[in-house]
Amino acid sequence: MASPLVWPVVLLTISNIFMTFAWYGHLKFTDRPIYIVVLASWGIAFVEYCFAVPANRYGSAVYSVAELKTIQEVITLTVFAVFSVTWLGQSFTLNHAVGFAFICLGAFFVFRGPLG
User: Model-level pTM?
Assistant: First the structure.
């Protein structure tokens, strides 16, 4: 059985994969009518919620809300970086890496605890 610290991270990762496809996956299918894209995205987003809500419910027992949100943001950036390169064929530049590194530095301070 996985640690209670791990389950929220796993569920948030799955959630973010679905949400990234709901928000950006349709960009590969620009020839489809917008109403079809919206309906498909809503369906995918429903699945995302089925993972996100339990992740936050279980996660709130072991993480603060600020820590949960920070975990979610770092996962979102990681999933999005992989998605944009593999699914959309976008390049990942040094500027992206530096920007993401600064966000990860912010995450470090959220988990570090009080300064001083």
Answer: 0.86
Determine contact, residues 58/52, Cβ cutoff 8 Å: no
Question: How many domains does the chain fold into?
Answer: 1
Could you identify the residue written with the tokens 């996100």? 52
Q: Is residue 2 part of a domain?
A: no
26-53, pLDDT tens digit by residue?
A: 999 999 999 999 999 999 999 999 999 9
Three-state secondary-structure class, residue 81:
helix
Name the residue with tokens 């530096």.
98
Other C-beta atoms closer than 10 Å to the C-beta of 29 total 10
Name residues whose C-beta falls within 8 Å of residue 96's C-beta, 6 or more positions apart in sequence: 81
Integer distance in angstroms from the first to the last C-alpha of the chain? 37
**The domain containing residue 36 runs over which residues?**
7-112
Sign for the pseudo-dihedral over CA of 73, 77, 58, 3: negative
* Within a domain: 22: yes
Cα–Cα distance for residue pair 13/6, rounded to 1 Å: 11
